[in-house]
Each structure stands twice: as structure tokens, then as C-alpha cells.
């Protein structure tokens, strides 16, 4: 049998590790051959392919990005999208499709699988770690590691100048990166999209930190918002996801802190460096295991399913269920880390 | 109430993060005060203490090691050990003891708690990740990261000289570090203590890798053993745990590979660098949450329990149960990664 | 004799290494004692001090920032500035002052030394590496390392999405960080303040890179400017030096590239992470040797001098000379690396 | 013209950066074409080649090792070695040869160039930094960085257990890696091959460090020797250069320290990890500039010369001179860092 592979959405460290594992096990254990579809759903939609074989995947384990490219193409919005995909799968004699992606990419896979009988297996990918049904997604640990190292570095600058440093990290709808890197980096305030923040409370924490003769670090997720609708929107720049950003919460917040506390504040927007480069050991492990189990699911004919991490086990869940709702930070967990604020 | 804290056994990145979390939450939420006992069980046994307060734990989150020292002292083997501990706890008015350690340290805590009614709460610590009842222990992710980075580096040397590189990593009884770092580092052979290895099979994998025009990396856990009792023991050197090592499996294996395949082979023994230095973001997160939940257990009067990771939740389990058996690598998991051998 | 030490200007990895070396050698070899003046020239101006001794400098070698604080205070602009400094030096019985800083801080030291006979020795500090009379300054290697690692990471994101990635690095008047990190990171375009750039030429290089089926990375120094005065200024945000920035050349350039080439372009502004955190081994070596030689200069009574790196030797040069002109990138050197553009 | 390139001796981070620079500039500026000779002098001796072109060198800048392989083959010891080389150069129509290597590899180039008129240009490569006529060689900064990071990590283990940690680093004849990493890592004793050490003095420093309530780190170069011929040789293991090691000075020293001071001591032998993996930014810069200047030398017909770093300039020196004597650590420089011992 020939198996197709595609990667959709924003790139994420570990994509290549998934591809390598799928191909290695598929060829060696199941005697499959492989074809890569380029740039996410654009590949099967337009019939753009790239060869995939064991030699093609050698050496890619430690490399960030995806060797088969990615895009945000949604084939369900394209004219005759489903028919064109089916035609291209037939044309390339593809019997099953492993789709590696986030909510959008997997949502298409769920529809194609459940409604049109196209043989799809899903592998979850979201650097924000906001897909329900899996404990973690690969790429997240790498992003948290990069953000934590940056926060470690910023502490010494903050201390030397007794300034507030506001660090804006990824997280449009879910605050996982902010929460983990903020905690690991010893931040004094962590703000997440799940809970609107009160600038006065932030300033109180900042002031309390200065009273202890230390300089505060404020970690704020890109998607965090103040409670009182007071944030003036700025347009034009782009966020870490490649979308035009409506607001730079980090810069806005630094100015508010300066204005209200009289202390100097600076902003660092980590941006795209959080999503590139070599994956952490944890992410290589997780991505590889996802790949191995995804090709097992293909072999079992278990379509419409997504692999997921449950404790230390890889399990399978219906894609449709897994993408039905976002996994956000539980208020209880956010409260737990609040002991370190201020 | 005054709470005592001690850290026992080999040091491990994240110990300081646990201590900091215990003290921060204990002081701020429960109004406890704290005392550190120096060098594991030696502290309460001999009454050696160190002050612990919020200022004392500032800045220690990213630092490896333990600010209160560690040792392998077993008070149950000391004359009147239990009585001396009880006397010292009384003398310092300590109402509860948080014991951070591995099998040995926690085994003592279980006995003191279950048999003598001394108020102990446990926090699991083993760089080898071999404590059952918890998905992961802190320090393990850091060790795996360091080993993976070393393997990444050794690949280029192996390739440039077309040599076999044998990397000996920690793991006396359990192969978790070898398994995770070997997989993450793209090793061509991974050998663990749980399964005796066949040198001929290792040589077959090595030869197969050379046939693909690449140089092989062999990752071997310190405690791995050949199948046929053929390993000649060497004495004198010390292993990564600080014990005299009975055998240097890495060096022995490299020589066997050279002898049998005719290819040059070199050994690198990673040793103590795996256990020192700043903890990874994952380990800081896990260690901090362990600390927060351990002090909650103290507050709940839930003694004789150990905090543990279960998926993404921190739960409590009886210490005695958790230390009853070693968590080793499941044969099915080892088989799963075997697809990358050769 | 008592020796005063101060650190002025923006913080820089290696400042603590200098302080430690001065104190270690001063105490052990010359039997001096020490006093730290807080926050650059504010310390001697206002008489704000901090104790400095061997125990105080233990463990600070790997730590970024400065334990005695920094500021941009210029005492020559303060009322009776020189007299107040002299009074405070007398009051604290300080016989010599080691001043660690950049053009501004050292300029004051030169004036105080040459015109007022105050015993100053200088240690050069500029993360931008733009002080003449020394081959390198500490902090620069660390900044280049951080920027290079970021560029390494951004390559994979650029490739996965076939986008242009513009990376804005430090360098207001001199392009050393851009030049070194751009070359080390394999950038396809490097733009420096010393030479106004032609956006059409930049777009030609970008297009040429895409033709080779690869995605371009453009490294631009904060202070680089287009040739034709076409850059629209934006106000409000702050640069990596903590000043209000008049223009965000990175964001502006990405938009121009998008507009002219039709390719997607994203910007990453590295900002303050370039100047914080643990110094590289090279910077620790250089900073330590600067410190050792600075205290030798004090001992020799060689005031008005600055230590400098010349090849592998530490030499002394008149501070006044060393700060007289900026060390910028030579056109020949810039031309040399141009072979990698496009 | 066609230019040949070879890399000889032990691998070293930066070799690929040199090759890439040579090819990029050679093709683009001078219209040369290229051929790689495999495995050092074995390539031209046996006529084993590999294609070298701009596409072949894409992406290799950050990769350790050498894409054209290396060996320690000495063609002057082979039968008709010179004639066979000349024949192969003729056969492949190679007009000039860039030889990248250390003392041995370049020594051959000097002989071939000076005595046989074969057109060779040299690029110095020694991870030990022990080639005279150049301030630094690439690879050295990477090795020092890896060793420093290891020492940073070992400090926390030493402190937690109040043990001596002996770290054995590369350096058979010259102590540059020990000196730089020991200083940067804050070691308490540094031992180099240039000066025989007195074990009693080492123990005195160790004891003095413990008296200050800290645990000592002893950095020892592989080639360091005790003063009194008292070291018992051990055979069998291999050193970081791939040679059978006659002595493991690190393990021997740890045992002596334990015996004489009664303190626990452990050894870590860093080994091959020091020479593999991605080069530091500094090494990429230096290696690239060496490559650019080497191909300029070819273009100028300036054969028998080697490129070298002099301050921040790349200069040319006669190969024969440059390889005539080893660059060892100056006693004055070693004395300078002695202030940190104990």
C-alpha cells in the first residue's frame, strides 16, 4: 500500500521526527511505500508531491520545520475540494493519508474521514498545547524551553537596571506557554488569555517585587487581555502565528506599568524564535512515538482517529472529538502558580 | 507550625525548585516556618540544620544541586536512629518533615511514618526515572537533554571518521535515560539493563549501519549486561552514582565491536555531567508542582504519602507502595523503538 | 589602599566576571580592600556604596548583569559633579577607581583623570564591540552567540513556509553584531548602519535565494537605514538600549519586501535577550583578564589608562584616545562577506 | 581552474564552514570549479574524490565534522606517495589544493609545496589551539564552550555532596582548553601539560577551597603529568584523539586526592563530545574567513602559505614556519590565572 503524509498549519519542532518515524516503521514493518504531499492540504488538492523514503528521512530527526512544507490551505473552502483530493489520491494510488496538524488541518481530516470515507489518520500538532484529548503536543516543550531561557537571561538585565521586563510569548487562545515558561523562569506575574487581567493588580505585584529589592519579570501571552477593555489596539504588525496582530499586549502593558508605577519598563516579544529550530529531547521522543503509533493505526485500518498522549501511553481518539474544543488553562492550575506572583 | 525539609541521595536538577516551592507556599498560604536539615537523613539524625525562609530560597529555581546538601546516610542503620531523629524533631519543634529523595531516602520516610508515627511527606527524586507510581521524576528530563545533546555532537565525529561511537549513559537498573536519549539522538543501537544484549546482534546492527554509508552510534546504559556472561569485569573506576563501578560496559563493548567487526570504535562515558547544572523547563515545572502539592499534603495532615505525576495531575500515593518496586522499561516499549536499530 | 569599582551604561554579560577578577587579585596579591559604587557614576556622585570582598564576588562569574547596578548618570552634567565625586572618594578613603563602561562612562573617567587628577583606570564595555583600541569587548561574543542561535532557529521556519524572515539585531552605530551573527547564521542579506542599503538590491538578493528553492533570512542592525530616505518613522517603542526608538527598521523592511516581491515576510526583533544572561566562555575569559590587568594598572599607578585586547595580549591605552572615535565595520570587511548574499 | 580540497586529522567543528566558504567564493568570484578529496591525504593518494559545488555545500555551515571525511594517512610514508599524488592531481586536472589540517596534514602540504612544487595552500586546524603563527584556530572556542558548560554543571554536584570533582579535558601537548575552560568555569585548580604538577600543592588548593565551605573543581588537561614520575600508567583506554591512552591522569589524580585529603573525589572525562557538533558563532566566523582568504591565496598563486588569524586580521604565513613549533601556554599567562587557585 502507498501512504500519503502531509503537514499543515504553522511549523513546529518535531514535524520531521513524526515523518521519519512514520516512514521508518511503515517501510520496515509493514512494507508500505510513501508519498509526501507538499504544503499541507494544498498538496492533495493540487496534486503537488514530494518523494518520501528511508533515505529521504535520514538525518531529519533533529531538524526543525518540515521537509514537506506547510500551509493553511483549507480544501473544504476550495471549489470541488473534496473531489479534487479524492482524484489526486486515486491518481497517486494513495490508500491512506496521515495528516499532521492542528485544529484546522485535523478538522478537515475528520470531515474527509467521517463524511467522505477518505482514509485519514491524524497526528496532533499545536505549539500552544491547546488540543484537548492529548496531555501534550510536540513543539510545546521546545517553545517553553526557548521562552524559559530568554526569561533567565532577562532577569539579569532587569536586576542590573532595576527595570520591569515584560516578555510576550506565544498563546493566542490558551496560556500554556506563558504558564509553563513563566513558572520555570521565575516570573513575578503571568498573564494568560483565559483570564482577563487587572492592570492595577499587575502594578501591585510589580511594586511588591521592587519592595523586596528585586526587579520584576512579567510574562504575558500574546492573547491576554486587560479586564476593562482599556487596551488601545494597534494595527499593522504580525504575531508569532503569521497573522496581522490587532494588539501588542506586551508593549501596551509596559507603557501602562511605567505610567502607573513610575518605574522603567521594557518589552521583549519573543516571536518566531519560539517555533523554529531543533526540537527538545522530549519533543523528539513524543513526535517519534506519535509517528510510530499513527502508522500502526493505518495498518489497523483505524481511520478517523488521532494519536494522543495519555500519561506515558499513546492512545487513539476520534479526530472529531479531539478537535471539538480547545484545551485551556484550568482556573485551579492558574491559581496554583499564583503563589509566586509579586 | 514548623516544617522540616531534607534532600537525600544523589543530587538531581530540580531539588532547589522543590525546596523553593515548599517554602513559598508554606509561608505565604499556611503561615508555616521552615528549617532545613543538612545532608539528607544526617540532618535530623545529628541535629544539623540550616535556616530556610523566603529570602533564603530566592534565586535558587534555576540552580542545580541542593542548597541544603545531600548524603546517603541511612538512619535506620544508626544506633538509636529513630529515637535520635524524634529527639531532634522535638528539639527544633518540627511538626512535619518533607523528605525529598529516591527509593532509599523515601523508604526511611515510609518506615518512620508508618511504623513510628513521625509526620513525613515524600517527594520522589530519581534521575533514572525508575520510581513506580509517578509518570516522571524531575531531573530525568534534564539528564535526557544533556545526553541527547552529547549524542547529537558525537554523530558528526562518527561520520567524519566512519567510526562506531559508544555512549555510556546513566541507568544502573533501569534504561530510561538510554531509551529516551538514544531515541531522541537517533542512535542506531540502544542497550538497557532490563534486557541482556547479544554482542553479535549489536555487531549486526553496526555493520548494517555502515552498509548504508553512515557511522553508528551505540547508546548503552551503565547497567546493561551482555547475554553470555562474557564481560570481563574491571574494577577501580566510579560510576555516575559515585559508587565504585564493577564494569565499564561502554569501553568493554567498544573493544568487542572493534574485535568482531574490524571497525574503529570509541567510547564516551557521560558521567556526572548528566546530573548537575540548571534544570530544564520541564523539570522546573514538575519540581515546583511537586513542592506545592507536598506542602498541601502537610497542611492536610496526609502523612506517609508521596506526591506523584499522573498524566498532567499531581496526585498522592502511599510512600510504601511507591517504593515497593522499581519502574523498569516495558519490553513492549523497548520493542517499539527497535525499528530504529541498525 | 581602598579601590572603588563602578559599572556604567547598559548591562553586558561579563561585568560580574570583571568585578570578581579585580577583587580576587586586588585582595590576594596587592592586599587592597574594595568598595562598590552603585549604579555607575551615580554611586560616587551621591555616595551610594555596596561592600565588595572575596565572599561577595563568589559565584558571580557565570552570572549576567552587574551586582553593583548600572545607570547612565553623567556626573559632569550634575551640579558640582566633580567636587561631589572627589568628596565622596575622600569620605570613603578611595585611592583609585576602576570604571567599567562604554564611551560615555569612560569619557567621564578620562576627564576626571586627565583634567582633575582623579585616579581612574578604565575597562571597556560595549556589547556592540564599537570601542576602538581594543580588538573585542566582552559581552559581544555572547550577544553574537544568542543572535546566531536565533537565526539558526528561524531558518527552519522560513523554509517550512517559504517566507522571508527579517531579524533585527543590536547595533545602533556599528554593525558588528549583525555582521558576525549574520555570517555565522548563514544569512542571505546583512545590513549594517555603516552603509545605507538599497531596498531594490535587498529584494534582488531575496528573489535570488527563492530561485535556489530556499527561503531567505535578512539580518538587519537596529541602526541600519535605507539609502533613499524612504523609511517612514514610527515612534513609541523602545530599542534594545532602552531608548525610545525612532524607527523599527526590521518591521519596515519586511513590509517593503512583501510589497515589492510579493513574498510573505515576517520580522523578529531580538531585543534585550541579546544582552542578558550567562556570558559565553570567551567573554568570561576576556572579562576576567581585563579585570586582572585593570588592577595591575592600579597597582602600577598607571591612571587615565584603559585595558584593551590586542591579539591575545592585554595592553593599556589612554582612555581619552580609546573613546575618541567609534570602531565601525570596515567597507572591505563588509565586502568580504558579501559573497554569501543572495 | 579546478581546485581540490581535503581535510586531515581529527575532526573539528568548523571544517564544513571552511569548505563552504572556499567553494562559495571560488565559484562566484573566481569561476573555479572544485573537487573534494576524501579522508585527508588518502584522497589524492588513492584518487578517491567527492563532488564539491555550491549546492553540495548548502546547509553545512552549522554542521560539525567534515562532509569530505578525514583520516591520518601520511602520504610521505606511502610507497611512491608523492608521485601518486601528483598523478591523481593531474588525472583530475587539479591546479591547486587547499589542505585543511593540523601539524601533520600541513607538514605534508609544506613538503609537497616547498620541495615538489605542488600548489598547496594551508588552513590551520587544531582543536587544541596549539599551532603557532595564528592567534586562534577554529574548533577551539567550541571545545572550550562545551567544557565550560560541563564545569558549570559539575559545580552544583560538587557543592551538593561536598566532593572534589576532577574534569579531564583535551590537550595532549598544550593546555589551552584546560586554561580557558578552567578559568571560564571558575575551576579551583587548573593543570596543564606545560608544567608538571605537584600533587601536594593540588591537595593544598583543594583543602583551602573546602575551608571556604565550597567544593573544589580540578580541571586537568589529558596530557598533564605529575612532577615526581609517580603516576602509574594504565593501558587500554583511548584518549579524545582516538589514540590508545597511556594514562588516565584524571582518574589517577582523583584517587590521589582522596587518599591524601580524605575527601571524596570523582572524575569526569569529557572526551569526544568536545570535538563534535555545531560550531560556536566565533568558530563559524573564523572558519569562514579562513576559507575566504585561502581561496584568495590560491587566486594570488601564493602557494606554500597558510592563512592565520592575527588580531582581527587574516594574514598569510609560510606553512613550514607555522608548523615548525607548537604553541604552548606561556608560563606568565599560567601564573596570571593562578590567582583563582584554591
TrEMBL record, chains A, B, C, D:
<feature type="binding site" description="in other chain">
    <location>
        <begin position="272"/>
        <end position="275"/>
    </location>
    <ligand>
        <name>substrate</name>
    </ligand>
</feature>
<dbReference type="InterPro" id="IPR022953">
    <property type="entry name" value="ATP_PFK"/>
</dbReference>
<keyword id="KW-0479">Metal-binding</keyword>
<dbReference type="InterPro" id="IPR012829">
    <property type="entry name" value="Phosphofructokinase_III"/>
</dbReference>
<protein>
    <recommendedName>
        <fullName>Pyrophosphate--fructose 6-phosphate 1-phosphotransferase</fullName>
        <ecNumber>2.7.1.90</ecNumber>
    </recommendedName>
</protein>
<keyword id="KW-0963">Cytoplasm</keyword>
<dbReference type="GO" id="GO:0070095">
    <property type="term" value="F:fructose-6-phosphate binding"/>
</dbReference>
<feature type="binding site">
    <location>
        <position position="163"/>
    </location>
    <ligand>
        <name>substrate</name>
    </ligand>
</feature>
<dbReference type="GO" id="GO:0046872">
    <property type="term" value="F:metal ion binding"/>
</dbReference>
<feature type="binding site" description="in other chain">
    <location>
        <begin position="170"/>
        <end position="172"/>
    </location>
    <ligand>
        <name>substrate</name>
    </ligand>
</feature>
<feature type="domain" description="Phosphofructokinase">
    <location>
        <begin position="2"/>
        <end position="298"/>
    </location>
</feature>
<dbReference type="GO" id="GO:0005945">
    <property type="term" value="C:6-phosphofructokinase complex"/>
</dbReference>
<dbReference type="InterPro" id="IPR012003">
    <property type="entry name" value="ATP_PFK_prok-type"/>
</dbReference>
<dbReference type="InterPro" id="IPR015912">
    <property type="entry name" value="Phosphofructokinase_CS"/>
</dbReference>
<feature type="binding site" description="in other chain">
    <location>
        <begin position="126"/>
        <end position="128"/>
    </location>
    <ligand>
        <name>substrate</name>
    </ligand>
</feature>
<dbReference type="GO" id="GO:0016208">
    <property type="term" value="F:AMP binding"/>
</dbReference>
<feature type="binding site">
    <location>
        <position position="10"/>
    </location>
    <ligand>
        <name>diphosphate</name>
    </ligand>
</feature>
<dbReference type="GO" id="GO:0042802">
    <property type="term" value="F:identical protein binding"/>
</dbReference>
<keyword id="KW-0460">Magnesium</keyword>
<dbReference type="Pfam" id="PF00365">
    <property type="entry name" value="PFK"/>
</dbReference>
<dbReference type="GO" id="GO:0030388">
    <property type="term" value="P:fructose 1,6-bisphosphate metabolic process"/>
</dbReference>
<dbReference type="GO" id="GO:0047334">
    <property type="term" value="F:diphosphate-fructose-6-phosphate 1-phosphotransferase activity"/>
</dbReference>
<dbReference type="GO" id="GO:0048029">
    <property type="term" value="F:monosaccharide binding"/>
</dbReference>
<dbReference type="InterPro" id="IPR035966">
    <property type="entry name" value="PKF_sf"/>
</dbReference>
<feature type="site" description="Important for catalytic activity; stabilizes the transition state when the phosphoryl donor is PPi">
    <location>
        <position position="125"/>
    </location>
</feature>
<comment type="similarity">
    <text>Belongs to the phosphofructokinase type A (PFKA) family. Mixed-substrate PFK group III subfamily.</text>
</comment>
<dbReference type="GO" id="GO:0061621">
    <property type="term" value="P:canonical glycolysis"/>
</dbReference>
<dbReference type="GO" id="GO:0003872">
    <property type="term" value="F:6-phosphofructokinase activity"/>
</dbReference>
<dbReference type="GO" id="GO:0006002">
    <property type="term" value="P:fructose 6-phosphate metabolic process"/>
</dbReference>
<keyword id="KW-0418">Kinase</keyword>
<dbReference type="InterPro" id="IPR000023">
    <property type="entry name" value="Phosphofructokinase_dom"/>
</dbReference>
<comment type="subunit">
    <text>Homodimer or homotetramer.</text>
</comment>
<feature type="binding site">
    <location>
        <position position="266"/>
    </location>
    <ligand>
        <name>substrate</name>
    </ligand>
</feature>
<feature type="binding site">
    <location>
        <position position="103"/>
    </location>
    <ligand>
        <name>Mg(2+)</name>
    </ligand>
</feature>
<feature type="site" description="Important for catalytic activity and substrate specificity; stabilizes the transition state when the phosphoryl donor is PPi; prevents ATP from binding by mimicking the alpha-phosphate group of ATP">
    <location>
        <position position="104"/>
    </location>
</feature>
<feature type="active site" description="Proton acceptor">
    <location>
        <position position="128"/>
    </location>
</feature>
<keyword id="KW-0324">Glycolysis</keyword>
<comment type="function">
    <text>Catalyzes the phosphorylation of D-fructose 6-phosphate, the first committing step of glycolysis. Uses inorganic phosphate (PPi) as phosphoryl donor instead of ATP like common ATP-dependent phosphofructokinases (ATP-PFKs), which renders the reaction reversible, and can thus function both in glycolysis and gluconeogenesis. Consistently, PPi-PFK can replace the enzymes of both the forward (ATP-PFK) and reverse (fructose-bisphosphatase (FBPase)) reactions.</text>
</comment>
<dbReference type="GO" id="GO:0005524">
    <property type="term" value="F:ATP binding"/>
</dbReference>
<keyword id="KW-0808">Transferase</keyword>
<comment type="pathway">
    <text>Carbohydrate degradation; glycolysis; D-glyceraldehyde 3-phosphate and glycerone phosphate from D-glucose: step 3/4.</text>
</comment>
<feature type="binding site" description="in other chain">
    <location>
        <position position="222"/>
    </location>
    <ligand>
        <name>substrate</name>
    </ligand>
</feature>
Amino acid at each position: 500500500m502507498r501512504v500519503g503524509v502531509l503537514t499543515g498549519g504553522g511549523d513546529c519542532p518535531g514535524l520531521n521526527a513524526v515523518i521519519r518515524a512514520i516512514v521508518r516503521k511503515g517501510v520496515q514493518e509493514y512494507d508500505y511505500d510513501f508519498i509526501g504531499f507538499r504544503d499541507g492540504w494544498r498538496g492533495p488538492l493540487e496534486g503537488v508531491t514530494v518523494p518520501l523514503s528511508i533515505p529521504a528521512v535520514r538525518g531529519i530527526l533533529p531538524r526543525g520545520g518540515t521537509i514537506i512544507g506547510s500551509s493553511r490551505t483549507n480544501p473544504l473552502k476550495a471549489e470541488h475540494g473534496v473531489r479534487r483530493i479524492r482524484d489526486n489520491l486515486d491518481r497517486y494510488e494513495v490508500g491512506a493519508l496521515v495528516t499532521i496538524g492542528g485544529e484546522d488541518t485535523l478538522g478537515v481530516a475528520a470531515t474527509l474521514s467521517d463524511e467522505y470515507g477518505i482514509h485519514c489518520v491524524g497526528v496532533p500538532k499545536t505549539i500552544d498545547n491547546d488540543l484537548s484529548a492529548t496531555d501534550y503536543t510536540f513543539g510545546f516543550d521546545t517553545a517553553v524551553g526557548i521562552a524559559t531561557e530568554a526569561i533567565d537571561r532577562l532577569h539579569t538585565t532587569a536586576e542590573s537596571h532595576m527595570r520591569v521586563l515584560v516578555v510576550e510569548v506565544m498563546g493566542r487562545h490558551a496560556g500554556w506557554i506563558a504558564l509553563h515558561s513563566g513558572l520555570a523562569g521565575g516570573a513575578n506575574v503571568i498573564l494568560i488569555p483565559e483570564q482577563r487581567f487587572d492592570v492595577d493588580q499587575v502594578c501591585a505585584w510589580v511594586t511588591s517585587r521592587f519592595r523586596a529589592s528585586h526587579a520584576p519579570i512579567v510574562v504575558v501571552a500574546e492573547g491576554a487581555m486587560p479586564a476593562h477593555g482599556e487596551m488601545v489596539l494597534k494595527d499593522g504588525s504580525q504575531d508569532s502565528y503569521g497573522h496581522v496582530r490587532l494588539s501588542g499586549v506586551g508593549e501596551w502593558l509596559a507603557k501602562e506599568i511605567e505610567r502607573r508605577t513610575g518605574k522603567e519598563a521594557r518589552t521583549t516579544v519573543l516571536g518566531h524564535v519560539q517555533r523554529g529550530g531543533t526540537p527538545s529531547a522530549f519533543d523528539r521522543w513524543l513526535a517519534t512515538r506519535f509517528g510510530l503509533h499513527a502508522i500502526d493505526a493505518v495498518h489497523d485500518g483505524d481511520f478517523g482517529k488521532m494519536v494522543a498522549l495519555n500519561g506515558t501511553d499513546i492512545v487513539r481518539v476520534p479526530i472529531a472529538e479531539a478537535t471539538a474544543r480547545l484545551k485551556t488553562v484550568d482556573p485551579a492550575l492558574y491559581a496554583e502558580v499564583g503563589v509566586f506572583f509579586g
